[in-house]
Amino acid sequence: MNEYSADILVTNGVVLQMDADSTRIENGAVAIAKDKILGVGPAAEFSTVAASRVIDARGGIIMPGLVNTHTHAAMTCFRGLADDLPLMQWLNEHIFPAESKLDENKVYRGSLLACAEMIRSGTTCFCDMYLFEDAVARAAKKAGIRAVVGEVLYDFPSPNYGELEQGFAYTKQLIAKWQDDPLITIAVEPHSPYLCAPELLKRASILARDHRIPMVIHLSETQNEVAGMIEKYGRTPIGFLAEQEVLAPNLLACHCVVLTDEDISLLRQFDVKVSHNPESNMKLASGVAPVPELLRQGICVGLGTDGCASNNNLDLFLEMGTAAKLHKVNTTDPTVMDAATVLRMATIEGARALGIDHITGSLEPGKAADVIIIDTRKPHLTPMYNPISHMVYAARGSDVSTVIINGEVVLAEEKYLSLDLEKVMTDVKQIADEIRRG
Fold it and tell me: Does residue 98 register a pLDDT over 90?
């Protein structure tokens, strides 16, 4: 490699680029200038690079940060609040009442905790749907993490904006405020077909297309949801969205657990992206999404944790292991959801699901410098025959030692550089005390 200067040189590790060729470099390096990747290659080729900061991976894994395609970040405030319940009872009797007492400050503090948890476990980008989403964007900006955020829209009044018309106004304000930000992307986010009238869905879709931004929605999560839509509209949720002309390449459909063959054909036809949330679906007994079939049909699938009130963590390493093993036992086929496929779902395919794969998701020159280092000097990671397999079946979020997002080091040697973790945790404990008091 030609001699040049870099701000950061990450070296002495196994590089997993997650590019189109799934390139792996046994002793590699990544050079970073400002917010971009300058070069990736064998470490020996970077010996003449003048770097302001050299980060030694110590033989660990150097790879792109993980992409969490579905979260409700501020639900850290409700972690463990109402476990072991069916979805609709969980929502209607516990979560919706608790959410009615939220305000912008609580969402900000809860989202900071979510950002801290995600950074610590190697996530460098997340997609959020919740209330007071400007506070979520501000929390992500403070933490230095990349985020796709959107205010949840539904037919009934919101604790944030009130009536629906103000919800669209709030979304437009978010678009205008954050349109040029290097870390924050705004999405249009109607909650679901069962909580959104046809007019709302059509209007949301037009707004997203006009601004060329993602639209995110919960879709076909449970048998009851699908049965209710068929009873009301004579269509499955996906068939209903097709009828409303809402299905599109910029649509991210979260969950997609209960699907017919026709549903899958529609997802493929309109190039709809899917966010798979196996741990949340398991905990709420929603079922098992037919992800192996979606992948066989060429549908883009990313991984998400969902909110940590229904998971109860935001660790995508755990989510990867669950996703791989769940579908093996569900299909009685040990070859489905192989490690390489699942790791791509958590990186480049997740970025593609969010429409930002030109920015992040792989280590390639010109892309944003979103890089993580996994410390493999651990008993549970020894020996290491196959680094990709280890990332899915053996590694944990706590193995992440260094996180770089957009060229900024936000976690170094497991220490936060962008957040006061003790204050962040104390703030959410105070919110929990308020919730306990009712």
Answer: no
